[in-house]
Amino acid sequence: MIRQEEVYQIGRIGKTHGVKGEVSLHFDDDVFDRTDADYVVLEVDGLLVPFFFEEYRFRSDSTAIVKFCDIDTQERARQLTGCDVYFPLSLTPDDAPVTWAFFVGFTLIDAHTGKPVGTIASVDDQTVNILFELEGGQLIPAAEELITDIDRDNKTITIELPEGILEI
User: Fold this and answer.
1) Which of 40, 115, 125, 130 has the highest Cβ tally under 10 A?
2) Which residues contact 42 (CB under 8 A, 6 or more apart)?
């Protein structure tokens, strides 16, 4: 059984494409540029399930058309629409550069108090000022100079929080 701590979210399945079981995969991580993989993990009905690629082709820097093995009809493909897509940490080399999306699911730790601030639900990297969005909706600056430690094993980021940021 695949556990949540063994994967990280890279995107979501969009609409079906054609009638032979293809789907669009919208991703916000460049994992396909960094490593080869035969499969991704989809969250289906609350379970993490590996889906092996039959083939895929890129439509843009953030969208691919994917054909999974044993998904041969539009009806079967439609069942996957909206599923979150994850990538196995075991297939990501430790020395490989990671994108901000890798940190979704990590817990932020306040460097001053040592206490958890919250869990990263998403990362807004659309502007120069990158922000962690916590599960409660709070936004925290994700500037590299504020991060004092990243613990991949425990999925934590220790950060020097700007004074008063938690009161906003």
Assistant:
1) 40
2) 13, 48, 49, 51, 80, 83, 84, 85, 86
